[in-house]
Amino acid sequence: MKKIPVKETIGSVLCHDITQIIPGKIKDRAFKKGHIIKKEDIPLLLSLGKDHIYVWEKKEGVLHENEAAERLRKLTAGAGITFSEVKEGKINFIAEYDGLLKINKELLYKLNSIGEMILVTLHNNYPVRKGKKVAGTRVIPLVIEEEKIKRAEEIIGNEKIVQVIPYKQMKVGIVTTGNEIYYGRIKDAFGAVIRKKMEEYDCEVLGQTILPDDPDKIRNAIESWIEKGADMVVCTGGMSVDPDDVTPTAIEKTGGEIITYGSPILPGAMFLLAYKKDIPILGLPGCVMYAKRTVFDLILPRLLIKERLKASDIAKYGHGGFCMECEVCRFPDCTFGKGV
């Protein structure tokens, strides 16, 4: 700190709070620690009896908290992020548009291990809406050694820690199977649920094909939707292990790559994911019909950013993939699927 006459402090940074007291009217902080003094502040400072001020004296190799926070912002924020103004070494990261929040957890850990500066985020793969606060950075002391910021820059390089990837507005074909539905014994309940889920992401449902439990007919229907321009095919019904549940066999018959049949997610264990070239084919378990949130709600946003999932991506859902089935559903503001 350096003590200098108040009239010479323009552009300097306060090292402490300054309180204003007017008996019977005001007792409050007039200036915060870290405030950069402006010309128009001088009369008020003088009226508060401050002829001299303790200010931060800029030194080579030392950064003010706000300057360091700006460096961190530029270093860690990727696409789809806007920001609050910097204040006391803190900047909030805000979603610029609807999309899926992606966090580089490994780099985040390394950054927060340096010390005296932090970056705090929401969970990876969090579906966010425009305007949602997704992260915040903070420099802990008033001043920080520039060497620590440089170390962070070396660790992170050209990669980013926080970004929001926008959804693609996909065209979707639905294939529903089951003799009981095909022959009119019961009414299909899947179609309306799938359409509602797709509407949440502004996706277009091209149509729905209802078929008996015939693997060749199911395969042909899947391929037909792809030929008609579907970016994704969703299959419902016939996903259990009963002998007449043949949807997995039909999906395999398309020649697509089966990524997984089964997932460590409840509700949603009997989930199937396959790819026909770049087109995802989903086999949805019966729980999607009646449960508020299921495996479908965790996987769909990732598919809508064109992320090609691997078996290992699905396996990671074992940590956090257990839905608590709350009486009032708060998804995605809950623990479901937040372990990945």
Automatic annotation (TrEMBL):
It is an enzyme of class 2 (transferase). CDD domains: MoeA_like. Its cofactor is Mg(2+). The keyword Phosphoprotein does not apply. It comes from the Bacteria. GO terms for biological process: Mo-molybdopterin cofactor biosynthetic process. Residues 173-305 form the MoaB/Mog domain. SUPFAM superfamilies: Molybdenum cofactor biosynthesis proteins. Keywords: Magnesium, Metal-binding, Molybdenum, Molybdenum cofactor biosynthesis, Transferase. It catalyses: adenylyl-molybdopterin + molybdate = Mo-molybdopterin + AMP + H(+). One of its GO terms (molecular function) is metal ion binding. Transmembrane segments: none annotated. SMART domains: MoCF_biosynth. Pathway: Cofactor biosynthesis; molybdopterin biosynthesis. GO terms for cellular component: cytosol. The keyword Transferase applies. Belongs to the MoeA family. Catalyzes the insertion of molybdate into adenylated molybdopterin with the concomitant release of AMP. This is Molybdopterin molybdenumtransferase. It comes from Crassaminicella thermophila.
